[in-house]
Fold this sequence. Notes:
Elements: H1 2-9, H2 20-32, H3 37-46, H4 54-74, H5 77-100
Amino acid sequence: MRSLFRHLIGSVENRQHTHLIDSVAGVNSGISAVALLPQLFIVLQSRTADGLSPLAFFLIALNSFVWFLYGMHRQMLPLIISSSLNTLASIGILIAISVRG
Length: 101
């Protein structure tokens, strides 16, 4: 497990990325960090998850986790934070769907 983590993190020389796409990814990750929070708050306030697709939120959680791993590999803190928040929000919605369905 430790070697997998080290492999994902990469070397310290990968820390600085100056490509335009890295800047765009940083801004996009800041926006996506809060993308699922309104849905999670609605589910928690309304105490119902009627009409929500468990498969969709499972796929969102899986996708966000892959982006988390990529953020760890590229050492992009904004991407790590946003993908962590999206993964947790998706899992929270999945739990709400299974509990309150």
